[in-house]
Amino acid sequence: MNKTKLVKIIAGSVAGVALGGALIYYNFVNDEKTVEIEMGALATDFTVKTYKLVETEENGETEKRFETGGDDFMLSEQNAQGKIVIVNFWATHCVPCREELPEFSEFQADYKDYVSVIVMNTQPEKGGYVGIGDWLNVGEPNVSVEGWNDFTFTFAYDEDYEVYDSFGFAGGVPCTAVIGKDGKIKFTSQASVSYEELAEVVNPMLPEGVVINRGDGKEETEDFDDSVWWKENALGIAFLITSACLLGGAITVSAIHTAKDKKRKQ
User: Fold this and answer.
1) Of 242, 237, 204, 199, which is closest to residue 110 (Cα–Cα)?
2) Torsion angle of the four alpha carbons 97, 98, 100, 103, in this order, in degrees rounded to the nearest 10
3) What angle do CA 243, 244, 249 make, to 5 degrees?
4) In 10 A of CB 134, how many CB atoms?
5) Which domains does the chain have, with CATH numbers?
6) How far is CA 52 from CA 58, 97, 214, in A?
7) CB count in 10 Å sphere of residue 81
8) Looking at residues 164-175, what average pLDDT do you find?
9) What would the 3-class secondary structure string for 142-203 be?
10) DSSP string, 34-92
11) What is the side-by-side strand order in the sheet with 154-157?
12) Is the pTM of this model over 0.70?
């Protein structure tokens, strides 16, 4: 047996052992971490610690700070109040997580009468419950998200990934789950979720006749200003008018030439 063939046999054996080990681990050893959750299954009830936003005034300026010690958030309690619960899992280092938070905040503002949105962090390496609370008060990298201290949802902490694992999630964040008023899982996603996607899931669960449009939760709405619209779209309008005139002129010239040709033939 030559050296090249021997190397190939050894390499193949090592690869086979590695593959077999991986299959055994993920199917048996790590079975509890790969829970499969079906849509419509009853969600595991949970209670998590939350952060409260405290406002203090000094020298005429209002400062907002996150502190530990907010009211505990219990899934079954929210369901008992007739609320649909949206659970989002995020991490401080996750850019897509931070970028989607405004979508969840706006959704909570619009659907506040029917929905409770809770955003959970699962980072014990950041100092756990107290550490994440402190992190929320730091300018960087939070400034990448506009209105960080004005979000309408509830910030919480998932101790030891217990809630995260209960939904069958694996492989990182962001992840989102929607639980109906009946406590059953209606939707899960292991990717970023938009306002529109949330609305598509939640709207069919609203009471009959209830229609919520984006922006319904805002206290102030901008009036439509015709003069501003004309100014902003003046170039486009001018282009359309010019194009219409040129097209009309071309049609007219063509019609004249056609009439002259017919007259000559006669």
Assistant:
1) 199
2) 140
3) 100
4) 14
5) 47-205 (3.40.30.10)
6) 19, 20, 26
7) 9
8) 94
9) HHHCCCHHHCCCEEEECHHHHHHHHCCCCCCCCEEEEECCCCEEEEEECCCCCHHHHHHHHH
10) S----TTPBPPP-EEEEEEEEEEEETTEEEEEEEEEEEEEEHHHHHHTT-EEEEEEE-T
11) 61-74, 47-58, 154-157, 115-121, 84-90, 175-179, 185-189
12) no
Other CB atoms within 10 Å distance of the CB of residue 190? 16
**Bridging pattern class, strands 84-90 and 115-121:** parallel
Could you give the angle at the alpha carbon of 142 between the alpha carbons of 138 and 147, nearest 5°? 110
Structure tokens at 157: 């902490």
Q: What is the mean pLDDT of residues 160-167?
A: 94
Contacts of 101 (CB under 8 A, 6+ apart): 90, 119, 145, 151
Cβ neighbors of 142 (< 8 A, separation 6 or more) are 98, 136, 148
Could you read off the pLDDT of 215-257 as tens digits, one per residue? 998 754 333 343 433 334 445 555 557 666 566 666 665 666 5
Q: Measuring CA to CA, which residue among 157, 8, 135 is closest to residue 89?
A: 157
More confident residue, 3 or 149: 149
**What's the rounded Cα separation, in Å, for the pair 26 and 24?**
6
